[in-house]
Amino acid sequence: MEIVGQPLRLPIFVWQAVRLPYKRSVMPGSVAIIGAGVSGLTCGVVFAENGYGTVIFAKEVAQQTTSGAAAAVWFPYDAEPLEKVIPWALRTFDLLADLSRVPGTGVSMIELRQFSRNKEIQIPDWAISLGAEPLIPSSTSVIPSARRAVGQRRRKVENGAAREAATRTGRPEAERTGSERIKSLESFSSGFSLRVPLMDTTIYLDYLANRFSGAGGSITRNVHFNKLEEVDRKFDLVINCAGIGARDLVQDVNLEPHRGQVAIVPRIENLYCAIVCDDAPLMYAIPRTNDCVFGGTNDLSSALAADPATTNQILAECSRVLRIDKPNVLAERVGLRPFRKSGVRLERDQLPDGRIVIHNYGHGGAGFTLSWGSAREVVDLATL
């Protein structure tokens, strides 16, 4: 084990958010969490807020992790098995919807429009339960007319952004004007829309870290463990949220890196919905508070350097779909989605010295989407 640096304690600020209670009487007194991406931070919040001495150990923290490179719109993407993933995702949806009403969290609700270029999309049952509605791409606007944009801004002021964000269901689209149809999604053949949580990673990851610190937790950065047994024995429970790092940490041959590259561009005027198409080439445009995420890729690769040619392809496809000039690139990010061929590993195990370890990794492209549901499962496993 190599430790470089000191515990990181972040400033405290006021929040009001839902907590996940559990049976303290049967829980360990001190908890070590490996990994400071969204899974590790969320688990840290849950344990620290319920009074347990909790320390997160990580080489990188928050926005420096794979989580920091994510578009982070709620959607169960690139994770298996669905019979477990969907319940975790829906539980997370509810908690994130609550957080969208809390100022400063970086969570909001956004209309997600999911499209296919060459097939008829079957709306999943879980999406129907959230109010998903079919879309006809040829009559669906990406960027609304100026008149409609003003109306949307007025409604946000009148209703309050948080209250506007709170609803789970989609709303019927208004009548389209001729100028809107010019900017329609005619390159797609089918699609559906629903309102989902969006986590602005530039805000939300810091929110989680601050919330964890405010509950008494601490983060020790620049730490590398070669194996879980190297965690100090003073910790009764070890939680493995190492993401793609678990491939080496626990020698998991089922874990593979699904490389994602994105381009951060300035906000696109009047783009109020997230546009996603999973068909090749993978394409998404996700508007955030201060910028917009253009993506992306999902390749089997461990390369962490941004590829300029890939960035150009991403810009070209997103600009073509949105029918805009290519924007300037503010930043390029690459992350390795921890996809596990045998499914998300969320299970209780035991170290050679007898301590309990809970594995919580392999969430693929759905780390944010499964974060709170997975944390609840970790709690349940720890209380067995």
Structure description:
Strand 3 (30-36), helix 1 and strand 4 (53-61) form a beta-alpha-beta unit. The protein has 2 domains: 2-68 and 202-255 and 341-382, Rossmann fold; 111-196 and 256-339, D-Amino Acid Oxidase, Chain A, domain 2 (2-Layer Sandwich), CATH 3.30.9.10. It is α/β, with parallel strands linked by helices and 384 residues long. It has 10 helices and 18 strands. The longest helix is centred in the N-terminal third of the chain and has 18 residues, at 82-99. Helix 1 (38-49) packs parallel to helix 7 and helix 2 crosses helix 10 (367-382).
What about the largest sheet? 9 strands, mixed
Count of separate DSSP helical elements = 10
Low-confidence stretches: 1-18, 21-26, 145-183
Quick one: CATH superfamily of the largest domain?
D-Amino Acid Oxidase, subunit A, domain 2
CATH class of the largest domain: Alpha Beta
Overall mean pLDDT stands at: 85
Number of domains: 2
CATH fold-level assignment of the largest domain: D-Amino Acid Oxidase, Chain A, domain 2
Rounded to an integer in angstroms, the radius of gyration calculated over CA atoms is 21 Å
**Beta-strand content bin:** 25-35%
What is the tally of beta strands? 18
What is the architecture of the largest domain at the second tier of CATH?
Answer: 2-Layer Sandwich
Report helical residue fraction: 25-40%
The general outline is globular
Structural class by SSE content? alpha/beta
- The N- to C-terminal Cα distance equals 30 Å
State the order of secondary-structure elements, H for helix, E for strand: EEEHEHEHEHHHEHEEEHEEEEEHEEEH
